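Researcher: Next entry: RNA 3'-terminal phosphate cyclase (Natrarchaeobaculum sulfurireducens).
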Amino acid sequence: MTNTRELDGSSAGGQFLRTALALSVLEGDSIRIEHVRGDRPTPGLRHQHLAVLETMAELTDAEVSGAEVGAETVEFAPGRAADGAADRPIVAGGTYEVSIGTAGSITLLFDAILALATVLESPLSITASGGTDVKWSPPIDYVTAVKLPLLRRLGFTVACEVHQRGFYPDGGGRATLHLAPSKIDAIDLTERGSLEGVRCYSTEATDLADRDVAHRQAEGALERLDETLESTTCERRETTATSACPGSAVVLRLEHGTGVAGFTALGERGTPAERVGEAAANAANRFFEGDAPVDRHLGDQLLVVLALAGGRLRVPSVTDHVAASCDLLESFDVPVDRVSDGDSALLAVDPRDALAGGS
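Model: Predicted structure:
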């Protein structure tokens, strides 16, 4: 008999839902979430959140209620192993296709699935269609160039193929996440280390190529960073991508001795490409003022990994998102030690308290 965790999303957003679903599968406990995305102007499930819920249900043979756009209460009960083992969820692997619709975020769907690597029985490939580079979610280059390389360092066997870019509002993007059974190492990300290099990934849709948008974005970003970087090696990758609608994105990756961070901006109608690049650089320059080894978005997303295997993680600050995620972990009996330390905060989970599936 599994427990049912009663969760309140009234002060949280979509990250709370995604993490809660992952923790439900990893612990094998049913959950009931009320006030889903309660702190958003339009609460409840949107198309991309519904896609996450339905995909997780399919992967784990779960029973679900509230699986509809606008639902503010969701119940999710992951399936059990055929032998009835109380501590072994069903995540069999295989190949799946998911259509999120229009410009719903592909990267956030992938984010929800990554933690399942520790309980997979065989390799998993999920091809999703929707938005690859859209507001309120990490651009696909952030995932492939910043997040996944770090996860591989921690023991994840994971890769991502980008088949076509999808920008707002039409979407039309397509990408595949490849995930294999993995044993995760405890996180030890407390020191940043010296800056070793910068990479700039600047992408334009084909319709924008005649305006050199990708090049101008990269120029704007790297010129704004010049004074900070001094003699640091900079590498740029400018891409013209087939897409169903015009759009652009820029991602800056900062590689340090032990840390990695990414900063992003999306093109908007009426905003010069140079200013788009500068927006990403401005965020990077603010990051240089602190001492955390990861950016604030990656810090939030790594909390589920911290729950899996334990360890220590320094984040730029305990934002509302980080606080909500820590509270969520503790509701699954994973205590998180939080210590503010100057310009950053140290989060720690004793490996003995980590979820089954971590090393």
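Model: Note for the record: The mean pLDDT is 92.
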